Amino acid sequence: MPQIFHHSTNTLAKVSIVGGLLLASGLIGLIMIFGRSSYVTRAHEFIEQPLQFSHAHHVGDDGIDCRYCHTSVETSSFAGIPPTKTCMNCHSQLWVTSPILEPVRASFRDDRSLRWIRVHDLPDFVYFNHSIHVKKGMGCETCHGRVDEMPLMLQENSLQMNWCLACHRSPEQFVRPRSEIFTMGYRPPVPQAVLGPQLVQEYGIQSLTTCSTCHR
Amino acid sequence: MAGSQEHPHDGAAGASEGALRMTPAVIAPGHTFESVTDKISGIVLTKRTPIGWFFGFAIAFAFLMLMNLTIGKLLLTGIGIWGNNVPVGWAFDIINFVWWIGIGHAGTLISAILLLFRQQWRTSINRFAEAMTLFAVACAAMFPLLHTGRPWLAAYWLLPYPNTMGLWPQFRSPLIWDVFAVTTYFTVSLLFWFTGLVPDMATLRDRAQSRAGRVIFGVLSLGWRGSARHWHRYEMAYLLLAGISTPLVLSVHSVVSFDFAVSVLPGWHSTIFPPYFVAGAIYSGFAMVMTLAIPLRKFYGLEDFITMRHIHNMTKIMLVTGMIVAYGYANEAFFAWYSANPYEGYMMSNRMTGPYGTLYWSLIAINAAMIQLFWFRRVRNNIGLLFVLSLLVNVGMWLERFIIIVTSLHRDFLPSSWDMYAPTRWDFAMFTGTIGLFLSLFFLFIRFLPAIAIFEMRTIVPQAKLQPEHHG
């Protein structure tokens, strides 16, 4: 009887065993990597805003406190986006003819809000409250990164659930004194391994990991 | 095993059985290597598909399409199309899951345990019983996947893998044990089935007339040449797989029973559940093998290979396991009384005299009373009657799961939460749809693969005994 398959099929068959396994595990691995990539999470992606507002300049160079603009961060779930009037507090005196600030002046003149594009956008099925995080000693920097070094605002972290849970499962690794919440480039004065558990104790921080903490 | 009357069997089937035997043989006399191979491979390699095959497949396929329709409706609408309600949060989805998984167990018992016990009569029924196992597990898997409503999310609900939510399944839940039990079962069963098919694939490759047949069977036979080394490795692999499969016969349905036994609900929270479920699984599985074997041997003229010996032995196993199941029912009733627990007592009296009492007594009538017919040789020789009885056993075992699940849930501790459960037409569409899937796969199987292990059948023809170096 004539041969159906070429002699090389023997090798091919053996290779296909290993190859099949590698292909399957490689594909699964790729899917996992893809799901965590910034292509999906949109982390570290500069977002085009109606106006090139630089946190690096206002926070880093000028040293304006976060709360000057984000006024409700200590009392509300939402940190607050400043109205144009807040900009005009200074910019009615400074750079009043700068062409780059024309949209701000136009907004003020016409009484029309600037349409900022949200950078940190959590899904609607997640309940998040800024005030309690600030109250319990979570620094802005912990989630938002070095805002004082960002010429355009970007999302520093993945905002994926395991990222939230990393802190909710062990808050002592991330907590800082309440006096340091708005500090950028904070370094713990004593090792975090010592300070963290103390602050957790002092602030009464619970490790809240039940589903309904965030999914209400 | 059997009585010792020295007379041929009565009934129509006796004639073909070789008269004057105490027990019918596992293969009819007069067969040679060649006649066995011709007969079995002929079913696959024939150019003319029997018209009856098309007829049967069309019906099965229609039900398969009904299943697809139901799944489409389910995915678009949600599981609200089912009759599940608040006290009865689990109904057809788990009833049918347990029923299908149970059916699979006979295949594994036949292929693994009977192999290790060197029961020659397994030889002609193991191949299609294993196929039955695979198809039944596939049907079973439909239900837990679809009851999630969003099966594309089932990956992280069911399987532990490092996902971006940092979530793991609840390892203390028997439902996740179920996932492991069933996936292991399917994988091992598939390997076992395929390993057993390899030498037969080579036979079909060598006999195939068409180029396509030679290539397809050639790929599937993995380069089998039938050398002594091949046979040695094959035998070793097959034995090892049988060893791995054997504990699965007991463990898989034990784990399925934990879905209930681990809860604290009267009617579920019972230590008898694992053995009672395993016996019930084997019982219903053999009934399904019988349901498939009787038409198969009739329409394809395989009475020489699937003889009355096989039918008798399967009937006897059904009798034994059915009696164990009946003992389980008696035990449940006894402990409901002996525990003096009012909830247990009410559960039992509600089963017997409550709104689902008719179903309870139907299942007792089938699984405890009717199977006593299997004691009689006249019944065991009556193929037509056995076919009907095997179908009824399948009905009985389905009713058992319905009773266990629905009557325990619908009236629990708080009378204020009591309610009735009634399946909707979508429930029935899904259930009959999976039967369509099962039968469609089975029709494809008997058309395209050898439904009986050719090379194993060759080992039991008298010709094989003459050679000193026969394998087996």
Description:
The complex is a heterodimer of chains A (216) and B (472). Chain A is an all-alpha fold. Chain A is 44% helix and 0% strand. Chain A is built from eleven helices and no strands. The longest helix of chain A has 28 residues, at 9-36. The mean pLDDT of chain A is 92. Chain B has helices spanning 33-45, 51-77, 92-116, 126-147, 154-158, 174-207, 211-220, 228-261, 273-299, 308-338, 342-353, 357-369, 377-381, 383-410, 425-448, 454-458, 462-466. The A-B interface holds A 1, 4-5, 9-10, 13, 32, 35-36, 158, 160-162, 165-166, 169 and B 161-167, 205-206, 214-215, 218, 222-223.
Question: Notable features of this structure?
Answer:
heterodimer, A: mainly alpha, 2 domains, B: 472 residues, mainly alpha, 68% helix, globular, disordered N terminus
Describe this structure in a few short sentences:
The complex is a heterodimer of chains A (216) and B (472). Chain A has 216 residues and is mainly alpha-helical.
Poorly predicted regions of chain A: none
Spell the H/E element sequence of chain B: HHHHHHHHHHHHHHHHH
Strand content of chain A: under 5%
Largest interface: A-B, 16 and 14 residues
SSE sequence of chain A, one letter per element: HHHHHHHHHHH
